[in-house]
Amino acid sequence: MANQRTIAKIAGVNQATVSLALRNDPSIPLKTRERIRQIAEEIGYRPNNYVSSLMSQIRSGRPPQDKGCIAVVVSGHKPAPDKSGGGLGPLIYQQQYQGMYQRAVELGFKTEFFFLLDSGISMKRVDGILKARGINGMVLGAPNTNEADATELSLNSLAVATIAYTWTGIDVDRVTSHHRHNVKIAYNQLLKRGFKRIGMCLSPGAAMGVDTNWRAGYLIERENTPTRYQIPLFVGRPDQTPKAKFTDWLNKWKPEAIVSILGHEKLWLDELKISVPDDLSVVCINRLPNSEFSGVQENHETIGAAAIDLVATQLIHNEFGLPKHPKLILFEGTWVEGKTIGKPPRRRK
Questions:
Q1: Can you tell me the distance from the alpha carbon of 180 to that of 221, in angstroms, rounded to the nearest whole number?
Q2: Taking 60 as the threshold, does the pLDDT of residue 36 lie above it?
């Protein structure tokens, strides 16, 4: 197996010079660095990532660890438990983080989480910490609430992946829910039960979020519906939109069922004395665990684990920096039966 001793022998230098040259250390003349890198390429030398990580830790003056480390950077707060079951963020993010942690342990890594809004550190500071600790693997985790800039990182020396679409502006490997297919799953559940007039409600953020895949999914399903049953998308949410706007949409288009993100529209329906599911059925495309709603539950732990897989694979193959062809891995959600689908209205033959 090609190693640094072999390179040193061919180049006529000592192993320390080879090690510094391969790390592009400026203490080694540029021509020497280039010659050593060329020899390394010719003989098929590939550095062992575990050894590289171990040596980085030793050079930083810290005691060697038994396992490599993958950083998880979140431009937000550490989620607090939401016992009410009403909040989206805390539950799904906790599941994603748990999936990351468990998968990293299975692969022989440990994880270190950086919640930027709790610690008050910048991306540049994170970059310095990673260098000092010899950490070269990173997941950019959701959310990115203050729009942190990942280009402030030394991306050329990092193996990076991200979750969903909260980190934009960089082309890295990405893993997310298959949002468009999740809309299709919910829509088909309603169709097979006999519903015809199916509407969809999205908040303004959701309509433009997830790379517009929720919106695109509904538009595709609507186009496949007979014209007389097609209903325009309603954009709004109870804490941002006047109830009258939602009422006008209901009265004009008379949906038999509504596809929702979380089911927040039920607040309006309760105020309007519209019973779910007796008068109107509601299904969710991002159903919360233990929710009363029928709908699609995204597999957040699996998504978190897959992000670690992406980074670990890059580390094993010594692939650092922005990929030439970024991967996009999609996971479909799982349908869960709840209590919010009734019977479709009877129609004249």
A1: 10
A2: yes
Encoding tokens for residue 303? Answer: 């998504």
Domains and CATH numbers, the chain: 4-45 (no CATH), 68-177+300-331 (3.40.50.2300), 179-298 (3.40.50.2300)
State how far the Cα of 56 lies from the Cα of 50, in Å rounded to an integer. 10
CA distance 258 to 249: 12
Residues with Cβ within 8 Å of residue 126, at least 6 apart in sequence? 71, 73, 114, 116, 153
- DSSP letters spanning 139-161: EEEEEETT---GGGS-GGG-EEE
Give the strands of the sheet with 137-144, arranged side by side.
Answer: 109-115, 68-75, 137-144, 159-163, 173-177, 328-331
Token pair listed for 251: 């009265």
The arithmetic mean of pLDDT across residues 28-49, rounded, is 84
Predicted model pTM: 0.77
Return all residues near 98 (Cβ < 8 A) that are at least 6 apart: 301, 304
Cβ–Cβ contacts within 10 Å for residue 85, how many? 12
What is the average per-residue pLDDT within 77-95? 61
| Cα-trace Rg, the chain | 26
Measuring CA to CA, which residue among 208, 133, 134, 210 is closest to residue 167?
A: 210
In percent, the amount of the chain with pLDDT more than 90 equals 62
The mean predicted confidence, pLDDT, of the chain is 88
| pLDDT tens-digit readout, 243-298 | 999 999 999 999 999 999 999 999 999 999 999 999 999 999 999 888 999 999 99
pLDDT for 97-147, tens place per residue? 989 999 998 888 999 999 998 888 899 999 999 999 889 999 999 888 877
Compute φ and ψ for 173, nearest 5 degrees: -60, 140
- Report d(CA 152, CA 126) in Å as an integer: 9
